[in-house]
Structure formats: structure tokens, C-alpha cells
Amino acid sequence: MGRSPYSILTALLAASVYMVLGQVVTFSPSTGINYAINIPSDTASKGSGTVYFQIQAPSTFQWIGLGQGSRMEGANIFIMYAASDSNITLSPRSGLGSFEPNFNPSAKVSLLDGTGISNNVMTANVRCDSCISWSGGSMDVKSTSSSWIWAYKSGSAVDSSSVSADLTQHDDKGAVTVDLTKATGGSSSDPFVTQSNSGSSINNGNTSTSNGNGSTNGNSTGSTSGSSSSSSSTSSTYTTSGVTVADSGQSGFNRRRTAHGLIMAFVFLILFPGGALTRHLIRSPKTIPYIHAPFQLFTLAAAVAGLGLGVSLALDIGEIYAYHPVIGLTTVSALIAFQPLLGVLQHLNYRKNGTKSPSAYAHRWLGRILMVLGIINGGLGFMFSGIGTPGVPTAAVIAYGVIAGFMGIAYILTLLLSATRLKSPLNTSTPNGCLTENAAEHSLVPAERSISKDGK
């Protein structure tokens, strides 16, 4: 059965519109942050050529990044940050793994009309002529599951036109896969320019391109006039379909960071001090072998778990040699290497001689020093992550300080009261007159006086 001339005309018209209008896939991993990708029809048919993408976010973000690849290592990354009150810088970079990506001088990108800062929104409309293949990988423009990564950092503006500006670690990151067949279509030289977006601006034509030499017409800084476009027409069809979340970021990096902070805070603020005080609060020959030692071993295991999360986070952001991870590794490693051993040596000495050995002093004071160091490092951890940034609320820092102060006072008062009680020889013996291990560790009474009433 033949098709009517009307249906054929309709099909041809639809095809022609599809060829002219851009087909754009968008996704928004966080409030206010939007990414958009377009593969022109000509690029899709040839398997090479130009790719368009857009990065948009409120100016309250310090930087926003979009990258091609499933992870940072080998990724083709593009980072947007403010160059001034009205201009942005787009910095093409090469992913190096768990380190800050370096500027990529081989990138061929151009900033298009609509790029700039307007109404407190940063926008980068980008033409990329080096996004099909790069030194670390390549992209199949017909892929239904193309890998992309994203990241952002909140904070004060970078205010730099340098494409090699030093950037601080991200607050959050994630990954998505994009069905590029849903982003294919159009022959526009700028599929984003006439879309009505709050904060989009129209460029006055003074747009720089990147050929890698960093000079004028050879950098990635777009200079815009700052005039806003309020056009309601659009040259593209926008869709959010075809995007699959591979790593939501919040359920990954931020949740691991939160878990790390909670575990280590509980360990050093509550568990270690509480375990240390059990031998002062519970007067029994069985306190140390049956309460103190098992409790502290459990706490040490929790510290190791928290340390593991911390190490994975530090490796992710390339900061394993920073002050916070180094202090944490040193503290927990010393706890593992020395505290159980010194405790066992003192316990064996007590069972043999009924006295306090040098290992008792070492166990006690090393434990106190490492406990205080761990608490201090917790505070440094808040600074390291950025107080007030997402995942590190100021209220949490205040609560940490209050609990640390309260536990410190309670710990010192308990030690003072315990020392007062132990000054009397009558308070250092069990019902049959023998010293408990707790008392033997603290008593100033010579061991030869710690005998039973029958003189044995």
C-alpha cells in the first residue's frame, strides 16, 4: 500500500528539521549545575569532527568540570571558572588519576556566543574539535553508553584568566553514561545560543579559541559583553533521556567522607577515652583482661576501618601526602604497632611480679599522646575538607569541639579522683588483701607490702 504525498512530505519535513535543529542531551547532577552535549549530524555520519557541549552553574561555585572518560586517569577534562565579574575561563586539562589535572595544550576548543557570567550564572558554550580522540582515549560518537565524568567545587571565585590556574580539590564528583544517539542532530554552529536559559549571555563576537599556546586567540578564556538573551526561540531540542547515572557522587565520595569523619570522631572522642577510663571506673581484677583490653581492641579495629576510608578518599583526590592523611596514618599505625604489645607485656609482668613495669608507663602515656593527636587531627580534617562546604557543615565542627572539650574535662577529673582514691593502701587491695592489677599499676605502695593477711 503506497504512502500518501502528505505523509511523505511530513517525513521529509521532519527529517529536514532534525538536520537543522540540534538534538541536545542534558543532565544535572546537583542543584543549579547543568551539562549539555550535542553531536552534529555531520560528525555522527563521518565519525569525526566537531562536538558541542555546555557547562552552566551559579557563580557561587568556584569551578565546575566535565570530562570524557569513566575515571580521571586519561580523561579529557574541561573546567570552567570565573575570570572576572562577567567573563569565564575554560581550561582544557588531561586527567592524571588521583592528582590535579594538567592543562592540555593540544586541546582545540572555542568559546561560543552565550558564554560568560550574567545574573550570577556562569555559562560556557563550547565547540570542541579534539573531543573525538585525545591522548588518553577516544569517543565513539555513535555509542549508546558514552562515559562522562563531572565534578565541582563551591567557594570564592578563582578570578583568573590563566588556563593553568591552581585549583583546590572538588567537593563532589560523579560519572554518567550518555546515549549519544539521542544527542545527535543539527548543523548549527552554536546549538545553545538561542536557548532561553536564566543567566545565559550573548557574546559580542570577541571570543577566543584554544590552540594550546596560551596567547590571545590561543587561550580558553571567553570575553563576553554580558548582555542577556531573553529570546524564547530555540535552535535545539533538549532531552534528559539517554543519561544513566554510573556514580552519583553523593553516594560515593561524600558518603565515604561522612562515614570516615563520623567513625574517627566517635573513635577518638568517645571510644578510646572511655576504654582508657574503664580501669579507673571499674575496680576489679577482671577489668583489664575482660573489659579494658577487648574494648580497646574493638576500638582499634574501628579506627582501622575509618583509616581505610580516609586513605581511599586521599587517593581519590591525590592528597595522600597532605598533613591530615599523614598524621592519621602515623597515629593509627602507632596504635596498632605498640599499644596492644605494651599492654600485654605489662599484664604478663603483673601476673609474674605483681608490679608495674616500664611497659606500663609507655602504654599509658603513648596511648594518651596518640589519643590527643587523633583528636587534634580530627579538627585538622575539617580544615582539610573545607569548613562550611557541602558535607562539612560548620555546626559539625562546633559539635566536635564541644564534645572534645567535655571529654577532656571528664577524663582529667576521673584521673584526679582515681589518684586520690589510690593514695590510701586500703583502697588498693581486694577483699583478701591482694592488689588488683589496676591498683598495682597505680599504687605507690611497694610490691612486698601487697601480701595477703595471712602473710603468704
TrEMBL record:
Composition bias type Polar residues, residue spans: 186-195
GO cellular component: membrane
Record bears the keyword DNA-binding: no
Pfam families associated with the record: CDH-cyt, Cytochrom_B561
Transmembrane segments: 261-282, 294-315, 321-345, 365-385, 397-417
Disordered as annotated region, ranges: 186-244
Taxonomy, superkingdom: Eukaryota
Feature: compositional bias, Low complexity: 196-242
Signal peptide span: 1-22
Record has Membrane as a keyword: yes
Keywords: Electron transport, Membrane, Signal, Transmembrane, Transmembrane helix, Transport
Compartments (UniProt record): Membrane
UniProt main location, coarse: membrane
Residue ranges constituting the Cytochrome b561 domain according to the UniProt record: 220-423
PANTHER family: CYTOCHROME B561 DOMAIN-CONTAINING PROTEIN-RELATED (PTHR47797:SF1), DEHYDROGENASE, PUTATIVE (AFU_ORTHOLOGUE AFUA_8G05805)-RELATED (PTHR47797)
Name by which UniProt lists this protein: Cytochrome b561 domain-containing protein
